[in-house]
Amino acid sequence: MSEQGTGTLRITLVRSTIGRPADQERTVASLGLRRLHATVERPDTPSIRGMVTKIRHLVKVEEVPAGNGAGQRLENEA
Q: Which helix (H) or strand (E) holds 74?
């Protein structure tokens, strides 16, 4: 978690929300995670970081540096 505001975060739901408080279930849903082992990419912003911190025991987070996306690979192939 080095430079905030750059790149994206790859967030994977690794634990169930069954039996968790309702606010944690809503946080998981607001990130777009619908089922176990679902992965989403979200921009690395303070608000997303706050949501991830709230449910850090349910998710796995990887930082994806800016510029390492599919768009860059397409430019290199063309």
A: helix 70-77
* pLDDT tens-digit series, residues 28-72: 999 999 999 999 999 999 999 999 999 999 999 999 987 655 544
Residues 6+ apart with CB under 8 A from 5: 44, 45, 46
CATH number, domain containing residue 58: 3.30.1390.20
Asked if residue 3 is part of any domain, the answer here is: no
Convert 23-41 to b/e letters by CB count within 10 Å (16 or more is b).
eebebbeebebeeeeeeee
